[in-house]
UniProtKB/TrEMBL annotation:
InterPro entries the record matches: PepSY-ass_TM (IPR005625)
Keyword entries, A-Z: Membrane, Transmembrane, Transmembrane helix
Transmembrane segments: 25-49, 154-174, 194-215, 368-389, 409-436
Lineage, top ranks: Bacteria, Pseudomonadati, Pseudomonadota, Alphaproteobacteria, Hyphomicrobiales
Protein name: Putative iron-regulated membrane protein
Pfam families (UniProt xref): PepSY_TM
Amino acid sequence: MTVSSMASGKPYYLSLSLYRAIWRWHFFAGLLVIPFMLNLAITGSLYLFKDEIDNTVFAYRNVVQPRGESLAPSLLTDNAKAAVPGSKVLRYQSPGTPTQSAKVTVGTPDGNVLVFVDPYSGAVLGKVGEKEEFSWVVKKIHSLEYFGLAFNRIVEAVGGLALVLVITGFYLWWPRKQTGGVVTVRGTPDKRVFWRDLHAVTGAGAGALIFFLAISGMPWSGYWGDKLNTTLSGYGLGYPAQLWDNVPVSKLQTKQVLGNSGWTVENAPVPVSTPGGTPVGLDRIVASAAAAGMTPGFEISLPSGKKGVYTAAVFPDDIAKQRTIHFDQYSANPLVDLKFSDYGAGAKAIEFGIGVHQGQYWGLANQLAMLATCLAIILASVSAVIMWWKRRPSGRLGVPPMPQQKSVFAVFTLVILVFGIAFPLTGFAILGMLILDQLITRIPSPLQRVFS
């Protein structure tokens, strides 16, 4: 934006001040989130194609040749247990297709191990530590949970700041009588204007999808997402708590017994069995789950203790087929049978968003759309760094100037803080930026020159 592009007089100063305030906040938010956005985009791109990677790079343990009838699940779990001496079977996952292996999770004093078993021969195809399996590692690095709770909270704050970047970026990009940098890129790579336009055009073109990725990823965040889950269920918009009204429950949550519990039911309580007689065994439960119409590829957690239950769950690409059933371990009777159709409106909307976010809903088209968005994030981030590097004065950060009308900056800051209240960890990050900005601009120090 240039002075000549605006009208003269008071409206000009207000418009310029608003532009500077938004530019300054866009700069600060970008400065904080670029490294994390790059991580999210790169790991997200990999996770979109986790099934394809499993079936090619790790085909030796995931892909089998169909031949005859599958062996009993109990035999497969016995073989898996024998492959890891001293282990205990925790979960069994049935093959999703005739060409997929069965997966058995066993527990050891050193952590859980995932064992891949040929369902036709019973041969163990491979084993890997649960926390070393490719998709698990990519997912945990994506959320930074791999490095601990504190880093996971940072990603949650970054998600909210990404929303700020999209909104402020659209304002900065919006055409103001100019044509360059709106849908075309001017100059050559050796010029700053080239990178400025590339950043603006990329961000504007993919902005809506970037906003979608950020907002649809927030439910998985550790703090905000957990609070949202509890709130929706409390208002009848999450999982239907009434299904548990006449069922005795344990202190366990579904996410504590399953490898993949899904977002809606992760905090739902696990029922208890009524002790009596002889446990029916895994084979009976697998048959009951299949007879109930569960989509192949369902996971079953084995009971822990005399009051434990078998929990069968499946979360396929078709979210309408999500289902969780808790079976009494003595009678095989379903204690709770939760289908997608039972979810509240809020949970259905969020599960839809998560499905699209992970590229599960419309097959390859969905995957490619999300991949293109991830690549746009990478391009926008890299171009932002190059643009800033070419613009900044030597030895300085090159922070955009404070607005001439301080009232505009104050009002805009208030709006941003209100937005931050909706996402508390983002709000704390914004508050920290605001305090630092005010301290540096008001208190004389060497940092004033660096931040100029």
